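Bit of a strange request maybe. I'm writing a small parser for structure token strings and I need a real example to test against, not something I typed by hand. Could someone generate the tokens for this chain?
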Amino acid sequence: MPSKKIKVFIIDIHAVVRDALTAILEIEEKIEVISATEINDDIVAKIKKLKPDVTLIGVCVSQKPGIHKLYKEINEKSESKILVLMPSNEPIPFLNALDAGVAAYLPRNAKSEQLLNLVIKLGSDYSISDIDILRQFNKNFNKLFRKSLENDQLSPRELEVLILISQGFTNNQVAKDLFLSKKTVESHVSSILQKLELEHRTQAVLWAINKGIIDVSQVTN
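Reply from user aminoacidic:
Good idea to test on real output. This should exercise your parser:
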């Protein structure tokens, strides 16, 4: 008896993007795209009727003003897990998505294999450890973003870079972890030092500890 396929509902503004995402997902025999459509007033009702395991939200849709209202509606009126493709360097839409109960996200520069693996994972039952890891990640991101608003000196991305530096990451390792180029990471480090009027990375880590952004137990010599 064939195993049950993971049903996916795709939402994106552009037909070419919907077609591309469909083609990528249906490479995997375990996945079936049951609908690929642009956003409209009947979208939640259609999701409720078709009962997809995963609802995939495209990048352009994820940036629409008030999109978190759609996430909440889908979350409240269906059991579909929401996967959002996000711009990797824009935290505000992601914060709204998390608050609305989105299950997972991928940056738009993620590889096809990452998308396929995450859809398969979402289409299967989470273990307790999976849920705990996801919730902890969401909690950490919210804390990071709100701290950036409070101190108003460093951006969320700069705080991410600073936290990784405190854990002993090199610029190359930070770049790999955050899907950035080494040059971009170097630019962030220079910006951090300039904004804080410091000369060395170690001084920046000490500043973050003093501000309560980094716990001393996180620091690696």
